[in-house]
Amino acid sequence: KAGVTQTPRYLIKTRGQQVTLSCSPISGHRSVSWYQQTPGQGLQFLFEYFSETQRNKGNFPGRFSGRQFSNSRSEMNVSTLELGDSALYLCASSTDTSYEQYFGPGTRLTVT
Amino acid sequence: ILNVEQSPQSLHVQEGDSTNFTCSFPSSNFYALHWYRWETAKSPEALFVMTLNGDEKKKGRISATLNTKEGYSYLYIKGSQPEDSATYLCAPPGDYGGSQGNLIFGKGTKLSVKP
Predict the structure, then answer these.
(1) How many contacts, defined by CB atoms under 8 Å, are there between A and B?
(2) Cβ–Cβ < 8 Å for A107, A89
(3) HSE-up of B73 (CA within 13 Å, CB side)?
(4) Residue A28, H or E segment
(5) Which residues of A2-31 are buried (b: 16+ CB within 10 A; e: fewer)?
(6) Contact criterion met (CB < 8 Å) for A42 and B1
(7) d(CA B80, CA B56)
(8) Is B102–A55 a contact, with Cβ atoms under 8 angstroms apart?
């Protein structure tokens, strides 16, 4: 089975712009979660989607949003980028019966 | 918001040493605890998911124990090898009793094993 894929892998954006990141889960996985990793804060939970519905949301401003499509692929969007949004964004997928989460390789976002 | 603490922050050991680290989490309404290994330039890899008090899980030279009453878990590595060098993360789900998809990660223990 193919693993979790994320595109793009690297991205450079300017302050004020917006960005969309994509995540394709493992086939058959309906839950997709997004995390942000920064050196100071570690891995922080952004949101979780299941069957096209947001099931949980972390403590991030409204500039961070996401969605999930009927094929379970998910996108996250960050609007009005700030320098502090520079981070590694990871997505993870799981089935709803297994507790294990499978992580993708991440998208490294740099905001200048 | 759950508070998950891991100690130590970093650890340097020699090849062949055995080592262990700690994860502390809120004990009330405990649901599950995940352990992940994150090697540099790779994705976090699931090691264990633990749910029952007194649980002990093992994968090769790595094992973990769980005490839900007092809110801690230990990860042990027996006979560390250079390939064990990684950051080890623990994470309970954010809403106890809910889904497993909103993990609250500790800051991790960074292990370096010298040959």
Answers:
(1) 71
(2) yes
(3) 35
(4) none
(5) eebebeeeeeebeeeeebebebbbbeebeb
(6) no
(7) 19
(8) yes
At B46-68, the pLDDT tens digits run 999 998 889 999 999 999 999 99
Would you say B84 and B111 are in contact if contact means Cβ atoms under 8 Å apart?
yes
Contacts of residue B103 in chain A, CB cutoff 8 Å? 33, 35, 43, 45, 101
pLDDT of residue B96: 52
User: Which of the pair, B2 or A95, is modelled with greater confidence?
Assistant: A95
What are the percentages of helix, strand and coil residues in chain A, rounded to 5?
5, 55, 45
* pLDDT one-digit tens code per residue, A42-74: 899 999 999 999 988 899 999 999 999 999 999
